[in-house]
Every structure is written in C-alpha cells, then in structure tokens.
Amino acid sequence: MDLQINQDAGFQWREWAAQRVGWTLMSLLVLAAVVGLLGPGPLSWSEAASADESATVDYLRWARRGREAGLTIRVDASHVRDGQVTVDVPARYFQDMRLRGVTPSPEQVQANGDLLRFVFAVPQAGARARLEFDLEADGMGPLRGEVRVGTSTVRFSQFIWP
Amino acid sequence: MDAVIRAAALYLFLLVVFRVSGRRTLSQATTFDFVLLLIIGEATQQGLLGQDFSMTNAFIVIVTLMLMDIGMSLFQQRVPAVSRYVEGLPVVLLEHGEPIKDRMDKARVSESDLLEKARSSQGLERLEQIKYAVLEKDGSISIIPSSS
Q: In the list A36, A92, A118, A150, which could disulfide-bond A43, CB 3.0-4.6 Å?
C-alpha cells in the first residue's frame, strides 16, 4: 500500500467494541439516576414506620451531598400529651444532615444527652401532627437515621452520594 | 431523576434553537459569535445544574448529554429521513460560474464569501473558475474548480 498511514484494524475494532460497552454503562448510570438510585426519584422516596406504626418518617433513601433531603414525620394522636408532642433525634444525625429549619417551629429544642429533643405544640386534642424537617445532606456515604416519638422509634438508613 | 430530565430538555431545546438559527451562525464564527457561545454556555449552566453542585449531579448531566448525542446520531443512521430535519441538507450555491442568487440570499452567503473560500481552498481568482460551490451540512463551503 502506498498510503503512509498509521492504522491498525484490530485496534480499531477493539476500540469500537469498548465504546459500545461504555455506552451501555452510561445508559445504566442514567437509568439509575432516573429511577432514583443516585438521588431523589421513585426508588429514593421511602417511608419508615415505628413497630406500632404510630409514627412514620418520609425520607430519601438515596440523597445527594449539598442537596435537600428533608424528613417528614407523621405522629399519631396517641403521642400527644398535654398539647405537646416530643421528637428525639440523635444529635450526630445533624452532623451529616444540616438542619435548615423545622415546620412548624418547635416550642423548645433541648439538648438531651446525645439526643436533640424537639417539643412541638399540638393545641387540638386528638389531632395528628405532621412535622417537616428541612435538611441539607452534608456528609458522604452511609448514614443511619433514628427518630423517637415517645416510646416509638423509627429507624431508617440512607446513603449520601458525593 | 430531575437532572436527567433537565439535561434532556436542554439538549432538545438547544438542538432546535441552533437548527432554527441557521448554519451560517456557527460556521462563520467571528469573535462575537464565540463570545455569544460562551454566554449561552453560562446561561445553560444555571438551568442545567440548578442548586445541585454535587459531583454525582455533574456526572449524570454530562453522561445524559453525551448519550442524547450518541442516540441522536444512531437514530439518524437508522432512519435517514430524520437526518435532514436534524442536520439539514447540502445546497448548491453556484453552478458553472453562475451564482444562484436566491439560494445565496436565503443561506446568507455573499459572492465575496464564495470568492474568499475559492481563493483560500483552491487558489482560484474568479467566479468563472468555479464549477460548483456547495454549502455543506456543517456550514462550510466546498468549492469544486472548473476543469479547464
């Protein structure tokens, strides 16, 4: 052949094959993102309940660093004592999840050993309470969450992507 | 999930905008065009990333855009009829030394553009020396000299 060219058909075919494999991997990544394995999405929106199901927590199974990953806590009327409901969360949870706000505003926040105790007013007798914790994922990797309402404990696990 | 939707929407939006604005806008990149592209990139970035500056989000957005591009090229390869809508078709602007005026006007190509390309690519001096001048899909102009 007269053409002065540095070609290698074997290498070229291997490159094309490798590209096809790469496309498949990329598709899998996008698919994982769509279904919610890499952040908010259908497989990420989860709900955990206490054993007696008197308290439930909506949380993100797969969170993303720097992004909101709030908790919605629903408490049965049975936990309301004297117009108040108390929620305990381990203080270390807020090291990986920065607390930006709580709705409704708690009447008190107490440091109770390793726990942070939030006391909410529930003026109406026999009413359920819905409490929103506005959180921003700040850590990385696996994270165990725990919310105690009275004697009921809700446990859940999360993962924060970098 | 939202990152994939945002990236896909922006890809399609940009595809339409650049297709509608016409080939010449990009091929004949002047300094101003280049600055304009940078600004478009800046504006795009905001909508693309939102408030999410995590690495995961960046990976997802990049991979989604690349996949859209690969998918679009495969789609055009399988269904050639689509190609003309996405990439356009070449158009002859000059035949046997005779400029086709209405086509050149619509394509926003002037005689001096053709002459410039004829000089730089073929070393031609006059329009009569050009057999065909073609505006290609990518916005470049091909000059085929008369074989005299």
A: A36
ipTM of this predicted structure: 0.78
d(CA B139, CA B22): 9
**Per residue in A7-34, pLDDT tens?**
899 999 999 999 999 999 999 999 999 9
**Topology of the domain covering A45-161:** Immunoglobulin-like (2.60.40)
Helical H runs in chain B?
A: 2-21, 24-27, 31-49, 55-78, 80-86, 101-107, 111-122
**Contact: A33, B64; criterion CB under 8 Å:** yes
* Strand residue runs (E) in A24-83: 45-49, 55-60, 62-64, 71-75
Contacts of B57 in chain A (CB under 8 A): 39, 64, 67
Q: Is B22 helix (H, G, I), strand (E, B) or coil?
A: coil
Q: Choose, out of A43, A64, A134, the residue to mutate when testing the contact with B (most B CBs < 10 Å).
A: A64
For residue A75, pLDDT over 50 is answered with yes
All structural domains of chain A with their residue ranges: 45-161
CA A20 to chain centre: 34
E strands, A113-162, where? 115-121, 129-137, 141-149, 152-161
CA distances from B124 to B115, B128, B147 (A): 8, 9, 12
Distance of CA A34 to the CA centre of its chain: 16
Cα distances (Å, whole numbers) of residue B139 to A94, B89, B108, B130: 56, 10, 11, 19
What sign has the CA pseudo-torsion B10, B12, B17, B19? positive
**H runs (alpha helix) in A36-148:** 93-96
